[in-house]
């Protein structure tokens, strides 16, 4: 579960509102001083994630607006020192995640529309009424100091999810210093960079924004897939941060379809929610999460801990595998007979995941043909489990 939540949530117009409306720093600082999400309840959020079958949460510790959603000594511009809330929601979340057995990752924006030392400026943040000078090295020291806090004060974290380097693609980000710091402080924390490029040295996962690995419908993803673990991030409507007028929620059916396709590409799905400024989660999002969780109670075996299957993704669906079990996910296929290339060996058993109903099949050197149950339009996926010998 991806969570975009911050000062911007108050305006209900997404996390880019400062840039899009050209809000100057002093005005945005006032907005920050009014942020008071008193209904934030880490137990509720993590319990919802749990009921959705979520295994890790990635939350915005600091987005491009430069406001720190955690206790930090590196700047007073943080939720504990700057707002009436005076609480550290990331600490509350970290503790609750530990209690409920979920990993917590921190989204961290390298781009900053507030910090005076983010200089020279990049492509964005040009309308914020900051001074026309700054010290880039001091900015990187600040960034590393904050990462040190995040990796020291919150217990074992899943990793750091970086975003925003694309704002200054030619700047010297001194990545090797930052990456070494992270790996020294927490060797098992993953570095997940959303720079939209092929992986760079020191990175631990490759993430694709609003696209399956290798696809580029969003217009900024690389088509190059490296050898690292993969992830696909996705909005539930069309916004990352809370957007009060964005009603274009994807259906649970479609969200499950993307989860399955991601698994078939060997990727995790990082599905976003944008909680409201009072700390509550929109019912539309909560409902979809619970429905996905319900689906996973039956079909999770074909998703969790699997890898991309032996038959490459097709229009009709995908395959996943764990050991000698291959799962055929039939997402879009109206017929009962489905042929595909041989899934890496001889099939000895085939059954419908969930009901256990036997699936008839034939195979030869070229193809496996399954006789599927009748497609039910309301079911997002027909999952056939195969035991494949000789794999
Ligand atoms: O600019 C951000 C955006 O606000 C959001 O955080 C997404 C999430 O993947 N990433 C950036 C755009 O690449």
Structural description of this entry:
- The chain has 391 residues and is an alpha/beta fold.
- It is 24% helix and 21% strand.
- It contains nine helices and 16 strands.
- It has an eight-stranded parallel beta sheet.
- Strand 7, helix 8 and strand 8 form a beta-alpha-beta unit.
- Helix 3 crosses helix 5 and helix 3 packs across helix 9.
- The longest helix has 17 residues.
- The radius of gyration is 22 Å and the shape is elongated.
Concise summary:
The protein is of the alpha/beta class and 391 residues long. It contains 9 helices and 16 strands. Strand 10 (317-322) and strand 11 (325-330) form a beta hairpin.
Characteristic terms for this protein:
single chain, binds ligand FHN, alpha/beta, eight-stranded parallel beta sheet, five-stranded antiparallel beta sheet, 391 residues
